[in-house]
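User: C-alpha cells for this one?
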Amino acid sequence: MRTVFVRRCLGAVLPLALTWTLGAGLLAQPAAAQPGTSAPVARIAALDGKDSGPAPTAQTATADGAHVGEGRQQPSRIPPLAASKDALRQAGGKASTRKPAGVAACDASDFTGATGSALVRQIKAATTDCVSTLFELTGSDAHGAFREAQMTTVAYAVRDGSASYPGDSTTGTPQLVLYLRAGYYVQYYNPDAVGAYGAALRTAIRSGLDAFFATPRSRDVTDANGETLAEAVTLIDSAEENARYIHVLRRLLADYDASWNASWPMLDAVNNVYTVTFRGHQVPEFVTAVRADPGLLDSLYRFASDHLALLGTGRSYLTSNAGRELGRFLQHSALRAEVRPLASGLLDASSITGATAPLWVGVAEMTDYYDRSNCPYYGTCDLQARLARAVLPVTHVCGPAITIRAQQMTPGELSASCTGLREQDAHFHEAVQDDGPVAGDRNDTIEVVVFDSSGDYQTYAGAMFGIDTNNGGMYLEGDPAAAGNQARFIAYEAEWLRPDFRIWNLNHEYTHYLDGRFDMYGDFAANVATPTVWWIEGFAEYLSYSYRGVVNDEALAEAGKGTHALSTLFDTTYGHDTTRVYRWGYLAVRYMLERHPADVTTVLGHYRSGDWNAARDHLTRTIGTRYDADWYTWLAGCAAGDCDSVPECAAPDTRVLGRDCRRGNRSGAAGADDYLYLYLPSGVNRLEITVSGGTGDADLYYSDSGWATRASHTGGSTGAGNSHTLTVTDPPAGYHYVTLHGAESFSGVTVATRY
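Assistant:
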C-alpha cells in the first residue's frame, strides 16, 4: 500500500496549469481550488526549491474532494471545497484550515454574535481574507456562525443584493458568497456541532444563486466580476445544486472567448465549471438531468473542439479539462452512445505527442478507465504501454540498483545523474549510520522516470502511472516486502533552469527511497501510523540541501520567527501546512542531528524495527519539552547567520566527518590525539580539510590508509594556532583519517571537510 505526500509551493503563483490524475482528471488554474484525487499511495515532491530555485509551475493547492477510481468506494456525500484563496490550502489530502500568513483571523464572535441584517452587515464589512479564515471554525463557533438560520439569512442576502449587483465587490457580494461556501464546508466536517441543513436552506440558496446568475452584471468580463463569479460557480457544487445550474455551466462554456484571457478570475470561473461537472457524478440528480438532456455533453465537446488553439499555451487546461469531463460521462452506460463518438472525435483532432497531447491523453485516460473493453473503437488499447513507447524511449542502467527511463536525456546528462545518485548513497549512510536494509525490504532497485519538462510530466505521468501530478515529482514505494515490487521515482527536468540541466527534486525524492529502505520498517502506511512526518520530510529536505551544499534560505527565514516549539514539531502530520511540514521539518531534523545525535540514533532504531510506539514515546516523553529552550536559542543563532555556514556533520558518531560538514568543539590535552574519519565514494577529485577556531594549538594530520598520527601520516599541516588547511587531490575511494594532535592543549576547535 502507498500513501500520498502532498507538497505545495508557497511562493508566487504563476499562470501555468497543473494536472490531476484519473481520480479528478482536472487541470487547475492558479488560485482556483479544485477537487482532490485519490492517487496511488506515494511520496510526492514539492514545488518549493528542493533542488534549486522556486519552480515556475507553483500552484495553489486543492481542496479535499471526491475520491474515485482505483476501486475505492465513493462517499455518499462529497465534501465542499475549501476556500479557493491562498488563505486555505490542502496538505496531505486534507483541506487545510489555516489562515493565510500575515492575515489576522476574524473574531468569530463578530459573526456568531450577530443575526439577521446585523450578520449581513458584518459579513459585507469584512474582507474576503477575513471570511476565508472562517473555514477553520469548529465547536460552538461553527454552530453560531453557520447554523441553518444563519446560512438562510445570508443566502437571502445574496438574492436581495443581486438586483443591484454592480459587477464588483463594493456591495459585499463576494464576502456573502464565500461565507456560504465556508458554511457548507464547516458543516460537512462538523455536522454535530453545526446541525443539519434542510429544506429552508435549500430554498434560500436556490433563490440566491438564481438571482445572482440572472443579473446582467454577472456576465461582465472583468476581474472584479470574475472574483465573485468564480466563487458562485463553486458554491453550486458546495450546495450540491449541480443539476439545477447545468444551464449556467453551458452558458459559461458558450460565452468564453479570447477576451476572457486577460482576466485570471474569469478563467477561474470557466474552469470551475469542470469542478461542478466532475463532482456532479456523485449527485444522482445531476446524472439524471444529463441523461434527460445531454446538451451539456455537446457543450463540453464544442468547447474542446473550438478551442484547440489553447493547447500548448498557458491556458491549455481549459481545453483538456473539457475533454476529460466529457470522457468522464462514459462511466454511465445510459450515456455511452452519446459520449463515444464525441470522445472519438476529440481523439482524432489531437495527438499523443505535441501541442495537442494534453487533450488526447486526457480523453484517452477516460476511455481507458471507463470504457476499456471498447478500446479498439477509440484507438487507445494498451494505453500505458503505448504512452511509454511514445514518451519514454530512453533507458539507461546506472548500475545494479538504479535505472533511468527518460523522455530525452543526453549521454552526459545520464552519466552525471547516475554519478550524483551513487554519491548521495554515501552521504545518506554517513548521516544515519545504518546497518543495512530494514527487515523484509526487497526494494533493492529504483527506477527513475524523467519527463522532459514539468508540462510533459503533467500531461503524461497521471495516465502512465496513475498518480496525482499537482506536485514536483512522486516516489512510489509500493509494498517493499512484495516480490517483484518496483520502487519508482517519477520526475521531470526543470526546464526553467536551461541551459543548465537538473532533474527537479531528484535528491529529495531519492532520499525518500533510501530512508524507506534503510530507516523505516514496512510500507508507507505503517510508517505514518504515528506522527513521523517531522523525520520523513524533514530529513529528505536536510539531506538534499546538505548533500548539495546549498543553504535552505526559506527554512532559515522561518527560524527567525520562532513559530513552533521542537516538541510541537514531533506531532507534525501531512494535515499541517507545507511550511511546517518541510521548512520546519528541516529545522527540527537539523537541530536534532547537530545537537542530539544520540536521540536520533535511538529513534531510528525504533523506526527500523517498526516499533513506532517506542519511537513516539521517546520523542514525546523522554525528550518531551526538555530541548525547547535550547531549540529557541539555536533558532535565534540560525536567524543570525550561524546556520549559513557549513553544517555540523549528521552522523551520531561524533568522530565521523562527511561531505561539506564540520565537527565543532573538539578538544584535547597537550600530546593527545583526537581521531576523526570519513568515507569517500569513487570519483572524488578533491578533498579539502580545514581546522579553525578555538584556543590552544592543534596540528592537523591525515592518512588514507589508517589512523593518522604525528609519526605515521600521509599529509599534514602544522604551525602555531588552529588555522590549518590540507587539500588532497584525486583521493581513492574508501576510508580517510584525520587527527588533531595537541602541540599544546586545545579546545573549541572545528574540523570541516569538503569534497
